[in-house]
Amino acid sequence: MAAVDVIVDNLVALWRIQTVRRYFPYFVKVSWGWTLLLLTPFLLLSNSSFSRSVSFLGRRLLSLVVATAIWYVCTETFFYIEDMTGSCYETGTMDVKEFTSKFTCRRAGFHWDGYDISGHSFILSYSALFIMEEIAPMASMKTASMSTLPKMVLNLLYVALNLIIIIWLWMFTCTSVYFHDQSQKWLGTISGLLPWYLTYRVWYLKPFSPGLPPQLHPKQEKQHF
Fold it and tell me: Is the pTM of this model over 0.85?
């Protein structure tokens, strides 16, 4: 228990640092970029070990396009809702200013108060689930014949993606504690869970879709070992 208390005290001290609290949202905002940076080469390497067909790899790459479209539509919708429900105030006096968007309000040095659905809860939950689905082929990679360099790169990307999942889950927990109210966090999280379910549990099972990440059937794995 003493060790746990030390960890908790250190974490509390970390979040009391104003610089950490100030720049934490900016790191989260580029989380989709980190996700794509690592996942794109992993997807190409892992999927090509099952098939080098251009049409197959093209379909699988479409999953990145679909996911990016989901990210863009959701975040833009959140911005729109915040603009439509907000007003601009002068910090301190709270006098209402005649600005109609968060961007112009903040650029003028004022404070915008609108219904801010948690984009952090959305992108962190969706990114973690998206990565989890797309790294699934690694379970069958032992049976694939790969040269040393591609296999080393694939292994490094796999480790990095698992670390990214841990980081996103940790940040999701921090967001749940320190940012937004409950309804904003719930809506953000549901916005991440719903498109994941509709794509990987419904649409990607259909013929006209990017398809699920390839994996060997258990019987095929036994034959290859």
Answer: no
